[in-house]
Design goal:
Helix content: 25-40%
Structural class: alpha+beta
Order of helices and strands: HHEEEHEEHE
Number of domains: 1
Shape: elongated
Largest sheet: 4 strands, antiparallel
Number of helices: 4
Distance between the termini: 35 Å
Number of strands: 6
Length: 128
């Protein structure tokens, strides 16, 4: 599969890029990261009298329009993945804005071309 450099850069593993280029028929579990607006972290006043103490942090609540945009991107990518795989993705990791899917090399290449995909990572265990 001949993919543009910008699409290949989304695939974050040399081995996985090789499998996509060869259109390997064997399915592989990958993590598909969405291009979503970053959550904003804000500092709040410490809870002690006069604002003394350790600062606290919280995520700034998202506006309804941002939430709607995020929901739309998630739904769009889920539908696109379902079209490519023939089934919807089974797992969505909300904290990382990612789907975990099982796909072959050709399917991973097609998913990498989608504009709402920011990265595709192999789902492998790291040795400690």
């Amino acid at each position: 599969m001949d993919l543009p450099q910008a699409v290949l850069e989304k695939i974050r593993s040399g081995d996985l890029r090789d499998e996509v280029a060869a259109e390997t028929p064997n399915p592989r579990t990958v993590i598909v990261e969405l291009d979503l607006p970053a959550a904003k972290l804000e500092m709040t006043s410490p809870p002690g009298p006069g604002g003394v103490g350790r600062p606290r942090f919280r995520f700034e609540p998202q506006s309804p329009s941002t939430t709607s945009e995020i929901d739309g991107r998630i739904a769009s990518l889920s539908n696109g993945i379902a079209e490519i795989l023939g089934r919807p993705p089974e797992t969505f990791l909300a904290t990382s804005g990612s789907f975990v899917i099982e796909a072959n090399g050709e399917q991973i290449g097609r998913i990498a071309r989608m504009p709402t995909v920011s990265a595709i990572w192999p789902n492998t265990r790291r040795q400690r």
